[in-house]
Amino acid sequence: MATTALKRPDERKAARRRLRGPEKAAILFLCLGEKRGSELMQKLEDRDIQRITRAMTGLGMISSEQVEEVMGEYTDAVTHGGGIVGSYAAAEAMLSKFLPATQVSEILKEAGGLARERDMWKRFGALNESVIANYLKGEHEQTAAAILSNVQPDVAARVLPLLGPEKMQDIAERMISMEAVPLHMMRQIEETLKSDIMADAAHPTATDMQQRMADLFNKLDRDAFDRISPALEERVPEAFGAIKQKMFTFEDLVKLEAQDLARVMRGVDGNVLPLSLRGASKDVRDHFLSVLPARSRDMLLDEMSSMGPVRGRDVRVAQAAMVDFAKELAEDEEIRLPLDDDDDELIE
């Protein structure tokens, strides 16, 4: 549990960036320098080289604090060097030490292309399931199967039932027996989806707008939200009710599985956790504390009691930071947010 002293805003922002495995490997190679990094990279398989290269080209500025975390036992060796910068040029320089120019160009081209493809599929998967289903209803079953095979399983699971029993069965069967889709066909599908995604973004559905408003209200100051809520409930009761169902607030964190909530609590920085709990209700605070080991719980209680009076605005900022972090973890599929629980079937 990270309950260290309060950090400056710029340090908190840098520390909050969470790194994945390939990014950590890229940091290690950058710290080794071109010569030693190149020698080590030669020992890797092509697939690993490509993954690390993709991470390195998009790494950007990494603070010395994060370098220390990644390097661990080598902290003393890297802290004096400060931060590092991962970029297209850094990846190109390192690869050029041991690969011919043509192969370097191919790897870097593929790294950039794959990054754009991942972004496209992520954007498509983020569309409302009804939008995706309506789009797939106009496509051949084999094309629909190829598309659903490239989105996250939870997205495909929500979309399939909306296609109707016959089409759902046909597409599921094709997905099971599907072999590799020819590259030229996949490229054509991706290009078509790109244009359709832009069209959908320009003409958002009512459901999309509700989600956007839910995201806006999640960020809105609680006092401001409380002031406008009565009027919205009176004037647009149905739409406002749907928006509230899509909102995810600090209090909703108690709906997380115990291990997921503990993951969120361990990952936030500085005094975000104790400050958040100082402004929480007793029931919410007790639930948070219940998922911690006894020693961590005692340390957190001591930190909360030593904080003295806290400002309500600071509490709301801290609670919003915890919600944002939980959403980041959910996007990376490290935890699952209990959204749309009203749709869950109750089994007795």
Automatic annotation (TrEMBL):
Residues 231-337 form the Flagellar motor switch protein FliG C-terminal domain. It is found in: Bacterial flagellum basal body; Cell membrane. GO terms for biological process: bacterial-type flagellum-dependent cell motility; chemotaxis. Residues 130-199 form the Flagellar motor switch protein FliG middle domain. Pfam families: FliG_C, FliG_M, FliG_N. The keyword Kinase does not apply. It comes from the Bacteria. Residues 19-113 form the Flagellar motor switch protein FliG N-terminal domain. InterPro entries: Flg_Motor_Flig, Flg_Motor_Flig_C, FliG_a-hlx, FliG_M, FliG_N. Keywords: Bacterial flagellum, Cell membrane, Cell projection, Chemotaxis, Cilium, Flagellar rotation, Flagellum, Membrane. GO terms for cellular component: bacterial-type flagellum basal body; plasma membrane. GO terms for molecular function: cytoskeletal motor activity. It is a peripheral membrane protein. FliG is one of three proteins (FliG, FliN, FliM) that forms the rotor-mounted switch complex (C ring), located at the base of the basal body. This complex interacts with the CheY and CheZ chemotaxis proteins, in addition to contacting components of the motor that determine the direction of flagellar rotation. Belongs to the FliG family. This is Flagellar motor switch protein FliG. The lineage of its organism: Bacteria, Pseudomonadati, Pseudomonadota, Alphaproteobacteria, Rhodobacterales.
